[in-house]
Write a structure and sequence with these properties.
alpha/beta; Glycerol-3-phosphate (1)-acyltransferase; about 40% helix; about 280 residues; 12 helices; 2 domains; two-stranded antiparallel ribbon
C-alpha cells in the first residue's frame, strides 16, 4: 500500500467499504455532495502535509492548523503523569470532533501518548488519529465485537477518553446539552477500578447543524445526516477560544449499589455540567 492510499480520505472507498456492491447505486451527484461536505480536498491536503505523523503529535498539529486556543481551568485536578493508576476521562461532546481532538492533545501530551479514545470506526479512516483509537460500532459488522473491544480498552495500560453521549450535543428547547449518557463508562470503570475524571468542554455548533439534527430526529432517520456536517462545523470553529474545565477525580468506589449504573451515569453527566 502506497502513501497516497494511506494518507488520503476517499469517499468512494469509504462507501465501498460500508455498502459493498450497493455503493455503485449511489448517484454521482450525491457522492460529489458528500465530498464537498466532508471537505475532502482540504482534508487530504492537510493529511499529505502531515505525512507519517501519527498519534498525539498529529492531534496537536490539528489544533494548531485550526487555530484553536484552549483555556484549561482546573488543571491541578488532572492526575499526575507519575501516578501508576489508569483513569477514565469523560466529557460532554458539544462539537462532535474538535473537542475530541483538543482533549487528545491536552491529555496525550500530559500522559506521554498513553491514551485511547473509544470512537466510531469511521474515524479509523483518519490515519493520523487511528493509533489513538479503539474502533467501536454498535451496528453493522462490529456489533458482536463491541463488548470485547470495550473490555480490552479498559483493561489496557492506557487512559481512556470517552464521550458517553455517543453523539454530538443537541439543541432541545433552546438548551444545548448532551443526550443522556450511556452507562458503559461506569460499569467498566468499576470493573477495572478506574477513577473517573469529569471534563466540561465549552463550545457549540451552528444553528444549521442543530436544525438538521432535529429534522433527522423528527423523521426518525436511521442514518445520522448531521454527522456529515461535522467537518463543516470544524472549519466554522476555526480560530476560536474554548474553555476546558476539569473536575476532581471521582473514586470508582463512589459508584455503589445505591443507584443503578445508568443513574450514576446521569449523576456524572450532571456534575460535568456544573463545572
Amino acid at each position: 500500500m502506497n502513501n497516497n492510499e494511506v494518507l488520503r480520505i476517499d469517499v468512494d472507498k469509504i462507501l465501498q467499504s460500508k455498502m459493498g456492491d450497493k455503493a455503485k447505486r449511489v448517484p454521482r451527484f450525491l457522492v460529489s455532495w458528500l465530498k464537498r461536505r466532508l471537505h475532502q480536498d482540504e482534508v487530504n491536503a492537510f493529511l499529505e502535509k502531515e505525512g507519517d505523523i501519527q498519534g498525539v503529535p498529529w492531534v496537536e498539529d490539528v489544533v494548531e492548523h485550526l487555530g484553536m486556543k484552549l483555556v484549561i481551568e482546573g488543571e491541578e485536578n488532572l492526575p499526575s503523569s507519575e501516578d501508576p493508576k489508569r483513569y477514565t476521562f469523560v466529557s460532554n461532546h458539544p462539537l462532535g470532533g474538535l473537542d475530541g481532538v483538543a482533549l487528545g492533545a491536552v491529555l496525550g501530551s500530559r500522559y506521554e501518548g498513553q491514551i485511547k479514545y473509544l470512537v466510531n470506526d469511521l474515524l479509523m479512516n483518519l490515519p493520523g488519529l487511528a493509533p489513538l483509537c479503539i474502533p467501536i460500532n454498535k451496528t453493522g459488522k462490529q456489533s458482536r465485537q463491541f463488548p470485547l473491544m470495550v473490555e480490552a480498552g479498559f483493561k489496557s495500560e492506557n487512559h481512556i477518553i470517552m464521550f458517553p453521549a455517543g453523539l454530538c450535543s443537541r439543541k432541545q428547547k433552546g438548551v444545548i446539552r448532551d443526550l443522556p449518557w450511556n452507562k458503559t463508562f461506569i460499569t467498566k470503570s468499576v470493573e477495572t477500578q478506574r477513577d473517573i475524571v469529569p471534563i466540561h468542554f465549552g463550545g457549540r455548533n451552528s444553528e444549521k447543524f442543530y436544525r438538521i439534527a432535529n429534522i433527522c430526529k423528527f423523521f426518525r432517520l436511521k442514518f445520522n445526516v448531521a454527522m456529515i456536517y461535522l467537518v463543516d462545523e470544524m472549519i466554522g470553529n476555526r480560530d476560536k477560544t474554548f474553555v476546558v474545565k476539569i473536575g476532581k477525580p471521582i473514586p470508582w468506589q463512589t459508584f455503589d449499589k445505591s443507584r443503578t449504573p445508568l443513574q450514576w451515569a446521569q449523576y456524572v453527566q450532571d456534575e460535568v455540567y456544573k463545572l
